[in-house]
């Protein structure tokens, strides 16, 4: 069965998944953030088949998240380094790590974010870049953007109607 492409969808989540939605891609990016750059090191770290790793590295390079740089002429060898677009994926990885630690690490966290000045464990959270205020469900809601097509507008309007109903129900039950 042929995989559906999300490239033509206006949804930024779908378009992002087109680039990184396959689990090997996210694990390759994780390893790149940990300093892995060479094919053999990715393969060793991940236990991934060479043909799959080749496809994933090519896709991440084509998507502009990694750059392929030659480090040896004979034989020709390449390393893969994060681009600015790839480095912008870091908050997504940190959010996945925090979510995984919170909900699925029954034995305790295997990776943590540490403040290297204080040595304290850091709990990542999303904040509004303008105000510095934490993003939370009560205060912030998704809206259709200027480039939204009818499908996105419909999806977001349905979400907003449900949200309004939930708020009305919670207000009525608390009175």
From TrEMBL:
Asked whether the UniProt record includes RNA-binding among its keywords, one would answer no
The answer to whether keyword Transcription applies is yes
Q: Which domain of life is it from?
A: Bacteria
Alphabetized UniProt keyword annotations:
DNA-binding, Transcription, Transcription regulation
Gene3D superfamilies in alphabetical order: Winged helix-like DNA-binding domain superfamily/Winged helix DNA-binding domain (1.10.10.10)
Q: Which SUPFAM superfamilies match?
A: Winged helix' DNA-binding domain (SSF46785)
List, alphabetically, the InterPro entries matched: HTH_HxlR, WH-like_DNA-bd_sf, WH_DNA-bd_sf
Q: Which PROSITE patterns does its entry note?
A: HTH_HXLR (PS51118)
**Descriptive protein name:** Helix-turn-helix transcriptional regulator
- The HTH hxlR-type domain covers which part of the protein? 11-108
Kindly name one Pfam family recorded for this protein: HxlR
Q: Which organism is it from?
A: Dyella humi
């Amino acid at each position: 069965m042929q995989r559906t492409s999300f490239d033509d969808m206006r949804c930024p989540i779908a378009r992002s998944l087109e680039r990184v939605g396959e689990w090997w891609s996210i694990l390759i990016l994780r390893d790149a953030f940990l300093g892995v750059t060479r094919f053999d090191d990715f393969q060793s770290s991940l236990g991934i088949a060479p043909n799959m790793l080749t496809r994933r590295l090519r896709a991440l390079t084509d998507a502009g998240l990694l750059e392929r740089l030659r480090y040896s002429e004979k034989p020709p060898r390449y390393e893969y380094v994060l681009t600015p677009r790839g480095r912008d994926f870091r908050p997504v990885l940190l959010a996945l790590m925090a979510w995984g630690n919170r909900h699925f690490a029954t034995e305790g966290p295997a990776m943590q974010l540490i403040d290297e000045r204080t040595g304290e464990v850091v709990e990542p959270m999303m904040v509004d870049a303008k105000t510095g205020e934490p993003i939370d469900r009560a205060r912030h809601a998704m809206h259709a953007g200027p480039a939204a097509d009818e499908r996105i507008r419909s999806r977001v309007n349905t979400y907003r109607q449900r949200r309004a109903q939930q708020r009305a129900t919670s207000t009525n039950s608390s009175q």
